[in-house]
Amino acid sequence: MKHLSTLLLLLLVCTCVRAQRVVAVTEQDTQTAGTLGFVVPGATYDVVNYKIVYATVDARGRPDTASGLITLPTNRNLRYPIGVYMHGTVSNREAVPSRPVSGAQLLTSERILTAALATNGYIVVAPDYIGLGDSEGFHPYVHAASEASADGI
Q: What is the set of domains in the chain, with CATH numbers?
């Protein structure tokens, strides 16, 4: 609950983007700076991850539901810049930032990069993209319009 005002502000900004509407926000997990320090040199802040599900359009302009991740530093006494992590190609629709991982999987997941930025003082937004994560259908590889619409989270 202590991140509610920051999250609400972020969601307000996100809903201003054409064709996006927030459907659900779910708190997933918290990672401590001590734990992140094993893989991220200089880890400073604990971070909390929120899965965002939002309505958007697919590559053909049809309505779709997509997902993404917002990672926030837990220290509320400071103001943080916002960064967007645009993950690379994945062969498994589950290998996206909004999917929780544990233990050794963290080292090879997209989430370690969002956590690395957040533990060093950034609010990080990471879309899963159309056709990956919670999105139905096919992922249109290297399709500028659908990648741009997914960035609106």
A: 4-150 (3.40.50.1820)
